[in-house]
Amino acid sequence: MSNDVASPARTLLPSRELYRKAVFRDLLITVPLLLVVVGSQIGVQLARARSAGEASTPAVIWVYLGVVVVGVVFAFVYYFALLRNTRIDLGEASLTVTNWFGRSRTVNLVEVHTVIQAMVRLPARSLPMLFLLDSDGKRMLTMYGTLWPTDAMTAVGSANAVAPTTFAAPVTYKELRKLYPKAVSWSRANPVLLAVIIAATVFIVFIVVVVVLLAALTSALRA
After folding, report:
1. Is the predicted pLDDT of residue 1 greater than 80, yes or no?
2. What is the pLDDT of residue 102?
3. SS3 per residue for 66-130
4. How far apart are CA 83 and CA 57, in angstroms?
5. Domain locations in the chain as residue ranges
6. Per-chain mean pLDDT for the chain
7. What pTM does this model have?
8. How far is residue 67 from each of residues 3, 57, 101, 198, measured CA to CA in Å?
9. Of 14, 37, 57, 223, which is least surrounded by CB within 10 A?
């Protein structure tokens, strides 16, 4: 495993190797799915245009292509910004956390009441994770194994006198949410239901967009 922790300055940096592997795994799923969805919709729109005798390319196709281009550009910007800006400056009494956007915030170690170090069981694999919680059980800091090396998590988890909470076996986000409701979001604890909601929302938005465009096109032709 790549160790990207700069010990002398106590600056913890994300692991480029771990993040590249995580991105590559995601691309293996999202890219084929994106090609199938977008390609099929473009094919449907082209077939409709031909059957209607339209010579120009339907406007909805340019919308699809525009969304894809914007998404790809954002993905590249996010990837490089995350690796360039994200860091944790570990001090004696506090942590300074800088996100991918370059914004920093301070976590006072004296306010940390719970340290959770566990392996989170995901559908395809298990990954290390660290949570710092305050006295109300709210998250103060989250570190995931898709980005942070284990030694960086250990350094943060042992930065104060709080004994870390560990588990004998990997746990799911849903199990963690039952124990720490304010630490794990509903979306992480219910990924399947979230995916269904997102898919249904996208489908409804798509239907609305198509209906609006067809109505506008019909009005233009009548005029």
Report:
1. no
2. 92
3. HHHHHHHHHHHHHHHHHHHHCEEEECCCEEEEECCCCCEEEEEHHHCCEEEEEEEECCCCEEEEE
4. 39
5. 5-189
6. 83
7. 0.72
8. 37, 16, 22, 16
9. 223
